[in-house]
């Protein structure tokens, strides 16, 4: 909200406002996407680590 208000009141050309607005939206999207991917992959990484521990125990 504040970011949009700042762009609305800024003395920039409309193309600059659009550029900065889209840059902010894409940055927000990418931050959320990375967090979701890390969250979704966590169970797989835990299972992989456990299987590696099991394999190391079987070799010893």
TrEMBL record:
InterPro entries: YiaAB. It comes from the Bacteria. Residues 5-40 form the YiaAB two helix domain. Keywords: Membrane, Transmembrane, Transmembrane helix. The chain crosses the membrane at residues 20-38. Pfam families: YiaAB (PF05360). This is YiaAB two helix domain-containing protein.
């Amino acid at each position: 909200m504040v970011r949009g208000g700042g762009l609305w009141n800024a003395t920039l050309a409309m193309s600059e406002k659009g550029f900065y607005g889209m840059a902010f939206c894409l940055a927000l999207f990418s931050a959320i996407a990375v967090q979701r991917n890390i969250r979704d992959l966590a169970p797989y990484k835990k299972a992989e680590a456990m299987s590696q521990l099991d394999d190391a125990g079987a070799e010893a």
